[in-house]
Amino acid sequence: MKIGRYSVEEFAELVRSFHGNAAPGVILGGFMVDAALQRVPEGRLYDAMCETYRCLPDAIQLLTPCTVGNGWLKVLNLGRFALTLYDKFEGNGIRVFVDSEKICAWPEINDWYYKRKKKAEQDLERLLEEIKAAGAGTCGFESVQVKAGLLKKEERGGMATCPKCGEGYPSRDGSLCCACQGETPYSNTASSV
Amino acid sequence: MKIGRYSVEEFAELVRSFHGNAAPGVILGGFMVDAALQRVPEGRLYDAMCETYRCLPDAIQLLTPCTVGNGWLKVLNLGRFALTLYDKFEGNGIRVFVDSEKICAWPEINDWYYKRKKKAEQDLERLLEEIKAAGAGTCGFESVQVKAGLLKKEERGGMATCPKCGEGYPSRDGSLCCACQGETPYSNTASSV
């Protein structure tokens, strides 16, 4: 069994190095991304959409050209363990999700997916064995059409210097940058060091 | 000059393979992350916050243990080219940003950062030369305190099966999953394939 151009063990090693540990979600995600890639027509330029922040974005970033920083991967916080690879111009694509009926055949995957066991109670080795044995056999596939509004490339727009913090920001954001308008994640007045 | 444990050329190669091309923003981002790492106390467990979706998240993911999928990197859409590495429990950290005064000494960086030239007009080679020559010399540094609300680890919570789409979702989201509540990114009724 392969995940992209890797053996399962090679992919697990890559996941360890990027994600910090061979997390079940990234290994399962690897099978899902691989299964999606096999269904993308040859030569098609695709973007990726991920419906959860948990683990799956890293499988996408490791196995496709799509990353958060190059803008070809969008992550939505919908809480579903699913991803879509779609034509970046037309929006038609293939969605891969965990099929809650199919996983009934895999008790460890089922308990893990539905968070029925505390982490300490999980048998990680058995869970990973089930994930490797099941491959994409726990997944469902759908044809989807991504909404037109999500296909638009963000306008490049101009930059300005924020009169409050003195940093560059997209001028379309207003007369101050978003952080100085109140979205700052910091509670102190920052001090230079 | 080094970026993390890489020579600048090695890092550029890594960026090509992950991000798709040796984009100026990821190379500059590499110097910024490296400079931040040098200011994190030894042995400190840190998380990362990135204030833009453009390029910089990939430099963070390549040079630190923090990724989008493992939850140690948060990306905010504030439009400032800046990142913070902070103590994941206490929230105190070091913020690195592009200093709009310091970049005046680097004309190509200045024009690129303020988007004063169309992509076709940019002298990419000269821009990259300036970025490599300047290193973190275009950056400012601040001590910051991340807001307490952003430090809280998301509750694990239970999972339910959405009665509409049939997929697992965090039960705290309500009686339907967020996608079926109207946040779906798809315009069609999906069809199984």
Protein traits:
two-stranded antiparallel sheet, 60s Ribosomal Protein L30, Chain: A, 10 strands, 193 residues, 2 domains, homodimer, alpha+beta, five-stranded mixed sheet, 6 helices, Wheat Germ Agglutinin (Isolectin 2), domain 1, 21% strand
Notes on the structure:
Two copies of one chain form a homodimer. With 193 residues, chain A is of the alpha+beta class. Chain A has helices at residues 8-19, 24-37, 56-63, 107-113, 124-134, 179-183; strands spanning 2-3, 6-7, 46-50, 73-75, 82-87, 92-98, 139-145, 159-161, 168-170, 191-192. In chain A, α2 packs across α3 (56-63). The first copy, chain A, has two domains: 2-150, 2-Layer Sandwich (60s Ribosomal Protein L30, Chain: A), CATH 3.30.1330; 154-193, 2-Layer Sandwich (Wheat Germ Agglutinin (Isolectin 2), domain 1). The relative contact order of chain A is 0.13. Chain A starts with a strand and ends with a strand. At the A-B interface, α3, β6, β7, β9 and β10 of A face α2, α3, β6, β7 and β9 of B. β7 of chain A pairs antiparallel with β10 (191-192) of chain B.
Low-confidence parts of chain A: none
What's the CATH architecture name of the largest domain in chain A? 2-Layer Sandwich
Which structural category fits the helices and strands of chain A?
alpha+beta
Q: Report the oligomer.
A: homodimer
Overall radius of gyration of chain A = 20 Å
Question: What is the class of the largest domain in chain A in the CATH system?
Answer: Alpha Beta
Number of domains of chain A: 2
The total of helices of chain A stands at: 6
Largest interchain contact = A-B, 77 and 80 residues
**Main β-sheet description of chain A:** 5 strands, mixed
CATH topology of the largest domain in chain A: 60s Ribosomal Protein L30, Chain: A
Helical amount among residues of chain A, as a percent range?
A: 25-40%
Distance between the first and last residues' Cα of chain A: 52 Å
Strand arrangement, major sheet of chain A: 4-3-5-6-7
Strand count of chain A? 10
* Sequence of secondary-structure elements of chain A: EEHHEHEEEHHEEEHE
Determine the mean pLDDT of chain A: 95
Shape of chain A: globular
Strand fraction of chain A equals 15-25%
